[in-house]
Amino acid sequence: MEKKILHVVEGREKHITDTGVVRQPLPSMQFRFASPFIVLHHMPPKYYVPGSPEERLHPHPHRGFAPVTFMLQGQGFHRDNAGNSMTVTAGDVQWMFAGKGILHSEGPSEEFLANGGAYELLQLWFNVPAAHKWDAPYYQYVKNTQMPAVAVSEGVHLQLVSGDYENKTGALQNFTPIVSIWGNIEKGSTTTLKTTPGYWTLLYVVDGKITVNGTPVEGFHLVIFDKEDNGEDIQITAGENTRLLYLSADPINEPVAAKDNFVMNTAEEAEQAIADYKNGLFGTLEK
Question: pTM of this prediction?
Answer without folding.
Answer: 0.96
